[in-house]
């Protein structure tokens, strides 16, 4: 039986309340708490705070306690002593509770039935809690963004079914039964233990945003159930050979950015996401790369030192996000073989004109950036047929001619940057139709005449750069009523 007033759930046989879901500060009567098994007082909207945790000790039958986003900053370590009194507690969720106390010590462990422990987004600033070793039924641990330090003790390997031990590192064979291991967003030093290769059930490895050094153990090549590998933004180096990946036939997501690897992913033809940005990669792109690219929905190789030309057509998956920005690539800009949503080729050495049929090749493009290259010629009128575009950045090139009126048809456009070119003529009235536009850069060109009066319709405009500090040179009197004019003049 249930009641909608406070989210009460009663036992069908005894009628006793066994679950309560509260989203308001409603006091609990003593008649409710004796047999209460499930209590959810998470505070998504109401800003609840608790400065005394002793009341929890009355919930003697509790199996599930959820207080996510309740302010427990004044409780300190008392909360741990209180919940430790429940031998039947199975799930404990205290995420984003503003804890700042240490959780590294607990003299006697009573809540040995605990299977799920979720404490993410707190700031304990302590070592990994040794008392976790006594929780033999533990299945899921989430300590992401908890500022825990050092390594998980070797004895953690005795836990039979740990699924997600987040934010800490380990040594030894401690992960034999893991399915998901997320140790991201911490300050973990040291190397990645080769014993992870013994965790044959691993499907997800997340070690990003730490201080890990060394290379990726070759034992990772034994993880034939692996789907996600994320070691981005560490200090890892070395060679990732075919022996790392040959047996990983289920691997879909590979995130290696922010390290310094030499690698070969020739066997990974089923990958969907590949991010090797900012990975100190230099030289030309190897031929095998284009054998694995055709299934990629995300391809990010930005911020490297890649040289040479891209193949034309460019082979990626339909509706992919493709980022080759900040490299040393040259030649003519390639077309993708399928429709894509994002194409960032900025800060390279591409040259030549923008093809006049660009709208036919990429009709569903959302993000187009070719800034800081050597593109020449005119902006094709067909760009106005790309109706889904939200960002057009063609700045810092050698483009000439007029801005096509058709750009005004890009109704969803939020950013238009044509600065630092050789564009001339009048600024088209049609730009005033872009009422979703937030940022407009027309600076350092050779436009004549003032800004069109239609610009007053750009009610959402936040940034306008026309390359002059004297706004009276470019603003017609009728534009003085535009909502952004005062901000423009004040910024000068």
TrEMBL record:
Protein location: Membrane
Gene3D superfamilies: Ribonuclease Inhibitor (3.80.10.10)
Pfam family, one: LRR_8
GO terms for cellular component: membrane
Keywords of the record: Leucine-rich repeat, Membrane, Repeat, Transmembrane, Transmembrane helix
Topological category with respect to the lipid bilayer: Single-pass membrane protein
Major subcellular location class: membrane
Entry-linked InterPro entries: Leu-rich_rpt (IPR001611), LRR_dom_sf (IPR032675), LRRC69/RLP (IPR052595)
Official protein name in the record: OLC1v1001417C1
Organism encoding this protein: Oldenlandia corymbosa var. corymbosa
Record lineage: Eukaryota, Viridiplantae, Streptophyta, Embryophyta, Tracheophyta
């Amino acid at each position: 039986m249930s009641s909608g007033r406070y989210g009460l759930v009663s036992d069908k046989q005894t009628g006793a309340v066994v679950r309560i879901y509260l989203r308001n500060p409603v006091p609990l009567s003593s008649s409710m708490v004796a047999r209460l098994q499930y209590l959810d007082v998470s505070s998504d909207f109401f800003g609840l705070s608790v400065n005394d945790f002793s009341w929890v000790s009355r919930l003697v039958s509790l199996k599930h306690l959820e207080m996510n986003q309740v302010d427990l900053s004044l409780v300190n370590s008392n909360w741990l002593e209180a919940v430790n009194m429940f031998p039947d507690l199975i799930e404990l969720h205290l995420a984003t509770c503003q804890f700042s106390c240490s959780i590294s010590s607990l003299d006697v462990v009573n809540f040995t039935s605990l299977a799920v422990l979720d404490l993410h987004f707190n700031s304990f600033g302590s070592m990994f809690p040794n008392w976790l070793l006594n929780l033999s039924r533990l299945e899921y641990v989430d300590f992401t963004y908890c500022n825990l330090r050092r390594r998980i003790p070797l004895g953690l390997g005795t836990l039979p079914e740990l699924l997600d031990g987040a934010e800490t590192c380990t040594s030894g064979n401690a992960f034999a039964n893991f399915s998901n291991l997320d140790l991201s967003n911490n300050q973990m030093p040291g190397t990645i233990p080769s014993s992870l290769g013994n965790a044959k059930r691993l499907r997800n490895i997340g070690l990003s945003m730490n201080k890990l050094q060394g290379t990726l153990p070759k034992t990772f090549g034994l993880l034939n159930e692996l789907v996600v590998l994320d070691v981005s933004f560490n200090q890892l180096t070395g060679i990732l050979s075919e022996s790392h990946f040959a047996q990983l036939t289920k691997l879909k997501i590979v995130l290696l950015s922010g390290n310094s690897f030499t690698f070969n992913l020739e066997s990974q033809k089923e990958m969907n996401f590949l991010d090797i940005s900012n990975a100190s990669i230099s030289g030309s792109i190897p031929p095998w790369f284009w054998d694995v690219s055709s299934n990629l929905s995300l391809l990010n190789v930005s911020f490297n030192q890649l040289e040479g030309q891209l193949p034309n057509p460019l082979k990626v998956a339909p509706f992919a996000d493709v980022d080759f920005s900040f490299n040393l690539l040259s030649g003519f800009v390639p077309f993708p073989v399928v429709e894509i949503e994002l194409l960032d080729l900025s800060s390279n050495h591409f040259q030549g004109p923008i093809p006049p049929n660009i709208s036919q090749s990429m009709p569903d493009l959302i993000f187009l950036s070719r800034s800081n290259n050597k593109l020449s010629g005119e902006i094709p009128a067909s760009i106005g047929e790309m109706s889904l575009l939200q960002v057009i950045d063609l700045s810092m090139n050698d483009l000439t001619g007029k801005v096509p009126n058709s750009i005004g048809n890009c109704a969803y456009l939020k950013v238009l940057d044509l600065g630092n070119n050789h564009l001339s003529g009048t600024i088209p009235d049609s730009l005033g139709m872009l009422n979703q536009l937030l940022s407009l850069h027309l600076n350092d060109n050779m436009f004549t005449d003032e800004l069109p009066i239609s610009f007053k319709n750009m009610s959402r405009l936040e940034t306008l750069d026309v390359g002059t500090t004297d706004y009276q040179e470019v603003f017609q009197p009728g534009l003085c009523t535009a909502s952004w004019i005062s901000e423009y003049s004040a910024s000068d």
